[in-house]
User: Fold these one by one.
Assistant:
Number 1:
Amino acid sequence: MDMLKKLFSLEGKVVLVAGGAQGIGKIVAEHIAAVGANLVIFDRQGEKAQETADELAKEFACKAIAYGVDVTQPEQITSAIEKADAEMGKVDLLFNNAGIVLQKPVVDLEPDEWRKVIDVNLNGIFFVAQAFARYLMANDRKGAIVNTASMSGTIVNYPQRQASYNASKAGVVQLTKSLAVEWADQGIRVNSISPGYIFTELTSFVREDWRNLWEDLTPFKRMGKPEELASGVIYLLSDSASFTTGTDLIMDGGFTSV
Ligand SMILES: NC(=O)c1ccc[n+]([C@@H]2O[C@H](COP(=O)([O-])OP(=O)(O)OC[C@H]3O[C@@H](n4cnc5c(N)ncnc54)[C@H](O)[C@@H]3O)[C@@H](O)[C@H]2O)c1
């Protein structure tokens, strides 16, 4: 039992959470702090990220700092990782979670709308993972990364039309496997989580009839809660997953099994 507690602990680790100002990122960050880690939050919403960091630092008596970072801007990411290292002494682990969704039929989609979703959801995940791996390698350190994909990388959601989102998330799953293989000999593990429908700021504005249908299509007959993803992320970041890389953990209330 002690062995298990030790394996799942993130005691003494510094965890970078990208897209951590709200939603899944914020709630998972809370659980990461609860198992002993200090936090660095990156988010395009700089002020909100700072408020989240202050709130978590107070609640969990940990150190938590935040930077306003747009994950589509590689220079901003590199510079913020350098600043975080100077402030925290190190950064060990990454929960790479920023993402957006756009629901619009393909025939109506403007080129810039398609580009924006791919830019945040796929390029952003790539740029943050790349900068973090470069940082680890430059410091001769091992680490672990968990990327947030989605069940939309495996199935096509219905009735909403969101081809850009689905394609971006399928890209995250395959990128995760590619990085896992490429960095295995550097001691950097890379895995992804694929949530099903989770109730957050991202999904709270969606039409009620759609949300009702999503619940009906999910074998559990409900949407998931962000806290139901936390244990999966912590497992994949922790030493318990020391032989696990390139995997995609689908947490969807059974949706993709039907
Ligand atoms: N909610 C769901 O049902 C669900 C399901 C599967 C996957 N996901 C994925 O989980 C992740 C989190 O989603 P959520 O529901 O918490 O959404 P959310 O909108 O509540 O949170 C997303 C966070 O990412 C940040 N962000 C967006 N663009 C950014 C950028 N360019 N640079 C930096 N930060 C940026 C936002 O400011 C926000 O804080 C996303 O990748 C999303 O695609 C969500």
Number 2:
Amino acid sequence: MLRRHFIPSAALALAAPAPAADDDAGWLKIRQDHFSLPDWRAYLNTGSVGATPNRVVKATNDYLAKGASYATDEYPRWGYEPMETHRTALAKYLGTSMAELALTHNATESMSLIVNGLDLKPGDEVLMTDQEHPSGRGAWQLKQDRAGIRLREARIPIPPKTPEELIEAILSQVRPETRVLSFSAITTHTGLLFPVKQICEAARAKGLITVVDGAHMPGQIPFRIDDLGCDAFAGSLHKWMLTPPGTGVLYVRGDFQSKLWPTIVVEGWRTAKDALKYMQLGCNNRAELEGVLEALRLIEELGPQRIYDRIHHLAQYTYSRAIQVPYLKVLTSPNPQLYGGMVAFEVDRPDYTPLWNKLAQRKVWTLRANKIRISSHIHTRRSDIDLFFDTLKEVYG
Ligand SMILES: Cc1ncc(COP(=O)(O)O)c(C=O)c1O
């Protein structure tokens, strides 16, 4: 019974033009045609790791099989080669140049490559926010213990009401000893979308190095890395971009590459052209990258803006339901400009265990921390969100 759900049925369906944001029946068909999610699963945790469409799974598996046969003369790997075709396709989608984009496995790795690659002196200050993911904060803490840098956190108002409030919360904390500003474009627990471009612009005007943890950006919201104006950007693809797990990117601005050391290298790194020097990590599984190319094709067929419109439409629906529940403290901004596909809240109850247990019974999967975060993607049904709120009501009234 279970097994049936793991075998893609309409594995190779070509995507018709995507439905309008509120066309639930149209999007249900996309779910049925393109995903192997069983009907009984309400998967609301794309923010941790996304669901991979059947076509992408197939492209990945096919390449793995082809590589295993050595029927071609090509290594079935990446980790040494420049992978220009793959980087060029990704760079086009992400709005930057191939020369500034390196392939990695995830945002965690990209953040560590950025942090470890920077020359900072004891006493240099890195300003973060109090909303950072452990991957970003952990990397900077390692640098603190090892290199004697100072870390400071700007307190972010939750929920914020305007982009200006966020710009002020960060920029007001810059001091003469601050060298680096490192912040998440979309926060992990609260799903808050920062006005990244304005913040980077202001920080660069103050002479700061700007590092953006953009783990949630690729595939969740339309944007161009070049427009952000940051020095370095860490992204995961496997959350929102419909790619196989273990796929990420590191962007390093062209004129910043001479200031960022690579961390994992092979001989030849001194002369490696462009961002290639950050991605020579040794033998890796190229099949995943064929999956990335297939995900890009699917996104192109559906239309990136249409995808975003649906994701955001459902997030707005989640928000509208959450604010009606008196015992929820909604952490998401009432301003829809300040979130994309994630809505978060706390429950005013001391123990979440009965809720987690009931959600597990109902096969509703959200982020389970000391906050609840609901992610919506194109496979999300409005009824999945309703099921979450019905379960909440059943548990807490
Ligand atoms: C803001 C942020 N940064 C980094 C990460 C780490 O992502 P990954 O596990 O894909 O490296 C996450 C994961 O949720 C995140 O929310």
